Amino acid sequence: MKEKSIEKVDKKYFTFAEPPNELILESGEKLGPIKIAYETYGALNANQSNAVLVEHAFSGDAHVAGYHESDDKPGWWDDLIGPGKALDTNKYFVICSNVIGGCRGTTGPSSIDPKTGKPYALTFPIVTIADMVKAQKYLIDHLGIKKLLSVIGGSMGGMQVLQWVASYHDTVRSAIPIATTLKHSPQQIAFDEVGRQAVMADPAWLGGNYYDFGQPERGLAVARMIGHITYMSDRSMEDKFSRKLKEKNKNVKFTTDFEVEGYLRYRGDTFVKRFDANSYLYITKAMDYFDLAGDKFIPKNRKIDVRFLVVAFKSDWLYPAYQAQEIVKLLKTHRVNTTYCEINSTYGHDAFLVEIKKESHLIKHFLRSVYGESGEVNESRSS
Question: Fewer Cβ atoms within 10 Å of its own Cβ: the N or the C terminal residue of the chain?
Answer without folding.
Answer: N
